[in-house]
Model the fold of this input.
Amino acid sequence: MSVFSDALQLARKPEETFKKLLKQKFSWANVFTHVNAAVLVAFLVYLAGALSVIIVGGLTSQNPALFQELLVRVYGDSFKLVFILLGYNALLVLVSAFYELVVRLVGGSGGFQRQTLVLSRVFSAGALGFACVLLFNDLLHVLRSVTGFDAQLLFMITWLLGFVFFVLFAYAIYRALALIHSFGWVKGLAVFLSFFVLLFSLYHAYSIFQEYRLEQQELRVVVVGEPSYNFEYFIHTENMRLAGIMYAGKISPDFLMPGTLDSFDVVIVTGAEYCNRDALDALKQYLDDGGKMILVGNACTRVPEMEGAGWNVWGNGFDDYVPVRFVGTREINSTFRISKIDHPVVNGLTNFEFAGTIAVVELKKNYAGLGNLAFFSDNETDSWSVDAMPAIAEYHGCTPIDEHSCEGFRQIYYLSFDPGLASRELFLNILLTLKE
Done:
């Protein structure tokens, strides 16, 4: 096959092959015909390997839908081939155009058309070589499934082969540029590496842009109290960072004063049963100013030197924003059940078993802006029953200015349990809801 023989000739005698190409009459039809033929052959080589894996796997497991699976794979990959062809042709032209610009800057000889012709043969050989690496990987996969060969060793073999191919491909581009433009090895290497400098610069610029975008959209979160180990593990995960959740750390209630929380988008109050009066005043002021809060369990239900338990002990009005009344705490082994399935907080979640300590609370009746999202119950149905205990409740509202408007929109979610004992998806959903 012509494209294979050209690739082998290029691998054996690159200098001689390049010199022959430079004597040929240039035509764009010749360039793209050769490249597209090579990509098509490479696609068939890749597809043969991919289908062999499916066939061996299907025969081993006696899959009755093997034929349908093969058809789906062929159809899907054939559809992608169109975009691969367009992308590969565009990549060839863009790479050649970039090197032409660099060559002009450093005073090299040659021309864009001759350079594109030579690079088209390198790109053709590269497509075939990459396809052969993929075929080899698939054949090793088949070998492992039949013989039980060590997967780690096979992976290392494939990685080594891929690395060798990449080095040869890069060297072929370097030699082509040096020969076409009559560069010495230093100048040729500098021109060749300029493309990788461009890629690195673009990647770095993209990373800076992404960081800037996340900073503009980030949700600054602070904890008042002492979060559990699982809680801190969840909030430090990569999913949280990618979602723009910026965890600023924790603040002891003993050091909380009015105004301390003003720079944070969300305040999570957890793990601190005792909160002094200044702390409760700071939390109240934060909500008065339109803050967003997650209140967990029995956090801040007790005030030093004061009797009783609950968010109304100090009587500063903080309790008015909490959608539940505190009763006590208890150990449970029950089922977390969703009561408001269309709420974004429970999006993608299902009922799950829960074991641990919760705060026993009562929902406030006839409370404007109140919503009960989930509860704990051993009842087999998802409807509220006499044994149900609130798990997640929300309150949202604002301070009326007149009969048509209000100010200081505030939002608070109450969780009767440590979110670190549930799923990280639930925790992330709550924070993303507060981010909107």
Summary: Residues 128 and 231 are 50 Å apart (CA to CA). The chain has a mean pLDDT of 87. The chain has two domains: 1-182, 219-435. The first helix runs from residue 2 to 12.
